[in-house]
Write a structure and sequence with these properties.
Chain B: Belongs to the ORC1 family. The structure holds 2 protein chains of 2 kinds. Chain A is of the alpha/beta class. Chain A is built from 20 helices and 9 strands. Chain A folds into 3 domains: 110 residues, no CATH class; 177 residues, Rossmann fold (3-Layer(aba) Sandwich); 117 residues, Orthogonal Bundle (Arc Repressor Mutant, subunit A), CATH 1.10.10.10. Helix content of chain A is 56%, strand content 9%. In chain A, a hairpin with a 2-residue loop joins strand 3 and strand 4. Classes of the chains: A alpha/beta, B alpha/beta.
């Protein structure tokens, strides 16, 4: 009886869980404008006022939103635009142009894209006709014709703004800023960038035309707020169909946020990065551990996810190496210690390895030189070692100078966890003179 | 009825008197006077333009009466003598059914001014019988019934095919003048009765019947079969048209001394196609002899006419004509401009008529012309008319409304002269605006742009042709600023152009003088203007041009054409040719072709043209490896005929020395001007002048901003932006809506900080603990090694040690690498691109002190 009940419970849970996972994954992976703004109220107000002035009063403006990656720049602008569009009749009253520096890699493409998005008269279907010069003069002419009171305001959003500054002569930026500072069609130029030195990238005449308004997003929240965000991100919305389950789930989230071990995990995460994306990654990984048989997230899930997140990628590779390869790495480590980070070649490593093998012949099989060479090349393929100079065809591979891309501590830590490591090898690793 | 001695029996020979005047525009010859010699009799009758004449019709007893407007030779082979007349009608020529409209019995010798524009006015000159005397009677006078001289005719009313009207005063005044010395004319009513008589004819019948009806209605004329006068046809259109033009010029000339100049009109009217010089000449003539008033008008007109051919020859060239203008006192200057302008009007209007003219040889056309007021118009003529209308509208604005009304009709009617003119003047549409003064043109440009562009824009068939560059207009009206702060913000926006630029008076004057002197001397030249961004270079030049354009409108300087190009608004330097050419002539061409055309235009043109002022902004971007673009730009003005003034603007003072080859910088010359960055006093003045009578700022707040900006860059744009931001901050800070906000020093301070403060320190303060630790590790490593650069591996070991000291969990290599690249992406660190291994070299992008300061705080 009880088993049947639990089975039916499981069924309900399975349904709910698939929904939960859909909702939460969407939340973690997409930047939906519905999510809350954390600690950016002032910036938000500044931006939305600015957009409103452009849309309603026809005032031209330019602004840069600066903040490290994952600090919510795009979310901020999306929020502000959404609010603007909710004003009555505003959606027909404002034109938006979205550009991305990674997509519009030069002014020619950018101009075509602008023309296309503005749907000017030289656009047929989705194609823009005319040469680069024609497009430029056409667009400028179009923007020049307008004036503050009669033309439809245009909001230009330039994502990855710093990449636009690398375009030839910064023609596009100059023209956009010039329009924003002259009595033409009202436009708002909004640049999003993560570079703090963005103003130094602008040419002085472009810089002079930029209004120097900067909105900084700095993730300026403390740990308590971080925990709150964690809780909010994990909670289910009120409109979730299974009220009972949602209640339970949210209760669990509340408990988690108060649990000590969870707080420790979060604190560690917070210390590494205040970036919300890393939090999302953590939550995503722990969410994946939730199944029908294990319907609610626990502290253990979070801890394991956190371990996954903070895993050292190089150490993982080392775990998969053969004993011979490990031995070679240890030999390299000793060489590094001996010669103070000077580069080495295969022959040196082989000699070091031979010394060890001769002493401890019983524990490690004495491989042929070509086999050792093969192992050495494998390490190179894994990018654990790297040639100092570019490989030239005719130089002998044995004597090519190499550098080790692993740190001593990394090697030692990896050896600790290496399964079935011969004790002699481990001892040799700790000290090159252990045989004495 | 009088029996006129004009019979078929006596052959007459017709010959021109005086030298032909070649009408430049129309390419045919016009004459002032014609001599009619009757065979067998030694008397010669001289008929001059402006006289009233009798014209052979169907009825020998009652020939048609008309006023001779013009004598010319058409282009047929052999050339036929043609004449253009304005018709009068006799009472019997008025349709019977309408005769009652007069309401009284007509006097025997009464004729009527035929005020019906759609009437053929071109006739064979050999149908002219001789002069006749026509006397105009004021509306109140009674037509004298018994007269000694039977040949005298009287005009009292005008007939417009609908009703009789008293002569308009202008017309009256005009007609009384030349009438004395002039011959008479009269006219066959031609077509006017048919419309009345033929309600339901098919067009084919229409013609035949019309001819019949003419026989019946106006005595038995045999128009088509007459041997000598094959068809004396009326083309009253032109007559009316030129009449209009008279009106126009009359009105424009008008002002105080209208009466004095009356006599000029007979002149102007007749060669209505002739343009300015003649008119100027006659005008000047009229003005030179102001004492001669209407009493002796007859004699005056006579000798005026005799003298005119020679004078015309002399004055044909423009320069003398201009001189006459100059001689005159100031009062006359304006009228003459007006006269010149309006004189253009008829010359253009003439055009579509050409079509008419040849057709008119067939009776049908005549028929059609008279019956259907809306004649078929060619597209081209429609186009021209459009343009003309626009121009007229513009002209009209500057004059009185009444005059506008007078000018407009001819445009609508759009009559003109002969076909060959049209053929010989293909660029008419383009020339048209150019003959108009340049100012007018520039102001018309916007109006004209659309029509001229659309048909011309062609080359690529695949491109959407008539795409007009335009952003759609907004649906919601833009809100006007309500509060004081909003008003201030609007004025503080860089785009709000002030009435005058404060603190740049000296520079303004220098540039103005330079350009003005070049304009007055009809020469060219270059000027190089430099200065850091935001010091008002472009704004000052714009201001200068605006003032010069005003001056040109007031006729203080010769008119000029202004073109502006910006190096930043070009995709590559050679595009500058394309832009200049397009703005100059509206042509589209490839860069190399445009360069050739421009070189041709500036280096080898003959016709005197007005000066072109070319503003080249952001000159440094026109640099090419061969420097051919700069070379050309500065080489053109050195040609004598180019009359090109180049104003080049760039940021750097030593640009000519730094990037230009010697041959280029030598052509640029040494006329240089440097715009100093604004001092804080000047910035303060600029802000005050913008905020004039708006109490939105505390004085100290303005001063603070001005001082801060002056210390940093002296960029006026920055100053305005900061103030604008300060108003916003002020608005935010006091949320009570009705409290009138005053921007205080605190608000400006905040704005200044926001714009100038470096964000690095804030960024470091807000970064995560591990990031801060990594920065510390960098400092430690730098300290240890004494270098400003370290590899990631070195920093990592320091970082691990630091973490251990602070009791933080051991940071793995991957985490630390992520931290490092995050700091690199926001440029707190400078890292090697595309390298993520231990050997990555790292530098700080901030000074070590700043990092220490930022880290120490907590």
């Amino acid at each position: 009886m009880s088993s049947r009940k639990s089975k039916s419970n499981n069924l309900i849970h399975a349904e709910c869980l698939s929904q939960v996972q859909r909702i939460l994954r969407e939340r973690f992976c997409h930047q939906s404008p519905h999510s809350n703004l954390f600690g950016a109220q002032v910036q938000y107000k500044h931006l939305s006022e600015l957009l409103k002035r452009t849309a309603i009063h026809g005032e031209s403006n330019s602004v840069l939103i600066i903040g490290p990656r994952g600090s919510g720049k795009t979310m901020l602008i999306n929020h502000a635009l959404k609010e603007l569009m909710e004003i009555e009749e505003m959606s027909e009253n404002v034109l938006q142009v979205h550009l991305n520096g990674l997509l519009q890699i030069n002014d020619k493409i950018a101009l075509k894209e602008i023309t296309r998005q503005l749907n000017l008269e030289n656009v047929v279907g989705d194609k823009v006709f005319g040469s680069f010069a024609e497009n430029l003069s056409f667009l400028l002419e179009a923007l020049k014709k307008g004036d503050r009171t009669s033309s439809c305001p245009v909001i230009f959003i330039l994502d990855e703004f710093d990449l636009f500054a690398h375009h030839k002569n910064q023609t596009l930026l100059y023209n956009l800023f010039d329009i924003s500072q002259s009595a033409q069609t009202p436009i708002a130029v909004i640049g999003l960038t993560c570079r703090l030195d963005i103003l130094e990238l602008l040419e002085k005449r472009v810089k002079s035309r930029f209004s120097h308004r900067q909105i900084h997003l700095m993730n300026s929240f403390g740990f308590p707020q971080y925990v709150k965000i964690f809780k909010e991100q994990l909670s289910l919305p009120a409109e979730f169909p299974e009220k009972l389950f949602a209640e339970k789930w949210n209760e669990n989230a509340q408990c988690l946020s108060e649990e000590r071990s969870v707080q420790e995990v979060l604190q560690k995460h917070f210390n590494i990065s205040k970036n919300l994306r890393s939090l999302h990654m953590l939550l995503m990984l722990s969410l994946n551990r939730v199944t029908a048989s294990h319907p609610f997230m626990t502290a253990v899930d979070l801890m394991e996810a956190s371990q996954l997140c903070s895993m050292d990628s190089k150490a993982n590779i080392v775990h998969g190496l053969s004993v011979l390869e490990i031995c070679l790495i240890i030999a390299m480590k000793h060489l590094n210690d001996l010669y103070e980070e000077e580069p080495f070649n295969f022959q040196m490593v082989y000699n070091e390895f031979q010394k060890f093998v001769q002493r401890k012949a019983h524990s490690v099989y004495n491989f042929e030189k070509p086999v050792v060479m093969k192992a050495f090349e494998h390490l190179q393929q894994l990018e654990l070692i790297k040639p100092v100079e570019k490989t030239s065809g005719n130089s002998q591979r044995e004597y090519q100078l190499m550098k080790l891309l692993l740190d001593n501590t990394q090697i030692m830590n990896a050896l600790q966890k290496y399964p079935n490591c011969p004790t002699d090898v481990r001892q040799w690793a700790t000290s090159s003179l252990s045989w004495l | 009825m009088a029996h006129y001695p004009t019979r078929l029996k006596t052959r007459k020979t017709y010959s021109w008197v005086g030298r032909p005047l070649l009408d430049r525009k129309l390419c045919y010859q016009t004459y002032r006077e014609m001599c009619v010699k009757t065979e067998g009799c030694s008397t010669e009758i001289n008929i001059q333009v402006g006289q009233f004449v009798l014209i052979k019709g169907d009825d020998d007893e009652n020939p048609f009466v008309a006023k001779l407007l013009e004598l010319f030779e058409d282009d047929s082979d052999p050339p036929k003598k043609r004449a253009r007349v304005h018709w009068f009608v006799r009472f019997r020529e008025i349709p019977v059914r309408k005769q009652h409209l007069l309401g009284r019995k007509p006097a025997a010798q009464e004729i009527f001014w035929y005020d019906y524009p759609a009437c053929n006015s071109s006739i064979n000159a050999e149908t002219i019988i001789g002069p006749v005397q026509v006397i105009l009677l004021p509306p109140n006078d009674v037509v004298p019934t018994d007269l000694k001289n039977e040949k005298t005719l009287f005009v009292k009313l005008s007939w417009n095919e609908k009703k009789f009207r008293p002569l308009s005063p202008e017309l009256f005044a005009e007609l009384t003048k030349p009438q004395e010395g002039a011959a008479k004319c009269q006219k066959p009513v031609g077509a006017k009765n048919k419309s009345a008589e033929s309600p339901a004819w098919t067009p084919a019948e229409h013609v035949a019947k019309r001819i019949e009806s003419r026989h019946s209605a106006s005595k038995s004329r045999q128009t088509p079969t007459h041997p000598v006068t094959p068809r004396a046809r009326k083309r009253l259109e032109l007559a009316s048209d030129s009449w209009m033009s008279q009106q126009a010029s009359c009105a424009s000339l008008d002002s105080p001394g209208r009466t004095k100049r009356k006599m000029a009109f007979s002149e102007i009217t007749s060669p209505s196609k002739r343009s300015q010089p003649d008119k100027l000449q006659t005008l000047s003539q009229a003005l030179k002899a102001p004492e001669k008033t209407r009493e002796n008008g007859l004699s005056y007109t006579e000798d005026d006419k005799k003298a005119s051919p020679e004078r015309c020859m002399i004055l044909r060239t423009r320069i003398p004509a201009l001189k006459t203008i100059d001689i005159r006192d100031e009062r006359t200057l304006t009228p003459i401009r007006g006269g010149r302008r309006s004189s253009v009007v008829p010359s253009m209007i003439l055009k579509p008529e050409n079509i008419k003219k040849r057709d008119a040889k067939e009776a049908e056309t005549q028929n059609e012309a008279t019956c259907t007021p809306h004649r078929v118009r060619r597209k081209s003529s429609l186009l021209t008319m459009n343009r003309i209308r626009q121009q007229l509208r513009f002209l009209g604005n500057s004059k009185s409304d009444q005059e506008e009304k007078e000018i407009l009709p001819p445009a609508e009617i759009s009559d003109s002269s002969s076909e060959d003119e049209e053929a010989s003047t293909p660029p008419l549409p383009r020339r048209t605006p150019r003959t108009v003064s340049r100012n007018l043109r520039s102001s018309l440009k916007s109006l004209l742009k659309t029509p001229t562009k659309t048909p011309k824009k062609s080359p690529k068939p695949r491109t959407p042709r008539c795409a007009t560059p335009q952003i759609r207009s907004r649906n919601l009206a833009a809100q006007e600023p309500a509060s004081m702060l909003e008003k201030a913000r609007l004025r503080l926006h860089v785009s709000a152009v002030p009435e005058s630029l404060p603190c740049r008076e000296q520079e303004f004057q220098d540039i103005y003088n330079f350009v003005e002197s070049k304009l007055l001397d009809h020469t060219g030249g270059c000027m190089y203007i430099s200065g850091v961004p935001g010091t008002g270079k472009t704004a000052t030049v714009h201001e200068v041009i605006r003032c010069l354009q005003q001056a040109a409108q007031a006729n203080d300087v010769p008119p000029f054409q202004y073109i502006e190009v910006n190096g930043m608004k070009l995709t590559e330097p050679h595009q500058v040719y394309v832009q200049i050419l397009q703005k100059l002539t509206g042509q589209k061409a490839t860069a190399s072709h445009a360069a050739e055309l421009l070189a041709k235009r500036f280096c080898t043109r003959e016709s005197p043209q007005e000066t072109t002022v070319l503003l080249v902004d952001e000159l440094d971007l026109l640099w090419t490896h061969k420097q051919d673009v700069m070379y050309n730009l500065f080489d053109w003005p050195t040609h004598k005929k180019a009359r090109l003034v180049v104003l080049a603007i760039a940021n750097t003072m030593d640009l000519p020395e730094r990037i230009m080859m010697n041959r280029v910088s030598s052509r640029l010359g040494l006329t240089r001007m440097f715009f100093q960055p604004y001092t804080y006093n000047q910035l303060q003045q600029i802000l005050r002048s913008r905020l004039k009578c708006l109490k939105a700022f505390e004085d100290d707040a303005i001063q603070l901003v001005a001082r801060k900006v002056a210390a940093l860059s002296g960029d006026a744009r920055r100053c305005l932006d900061i103030c604008r931001r300060a108003t916003e901050i002020c608005e935010f800070s006091q949320q009570k809506p009705n409290s009138p906000g005053l921007v205080t020093i605190a608000h400006s301070m905040e704005a200044v900080d926001e714009m100038f403060s470096s964000s690095y320190i804030m960024a470091i303060k807000n970064s995560s603990i591990l990031e801060q630790g990594f920065l510390r590790a960098i400092l430690a490593e730098f300290h240890r090694s004494g270098l400003e650069e370290a590899t990631f591996q070195q920093i990592y070991s320091q970082h691990v040690a630091l973490c251990r000291m602070e009791g933080l969990p051991y940071p793995t290599m991957s985490e630390t690498m992520a931290v490092c690249s995050r700091l690199g992406s926001c440029r707190l660190l400078l890292v090697e691109p595309s390298r993520n291994d231990l050997l990555l070299r790292v530098r700080l992008n901030v000074s070590q002190d700043d990092v220490l300061y930022a880290l120490k705080e907590e």
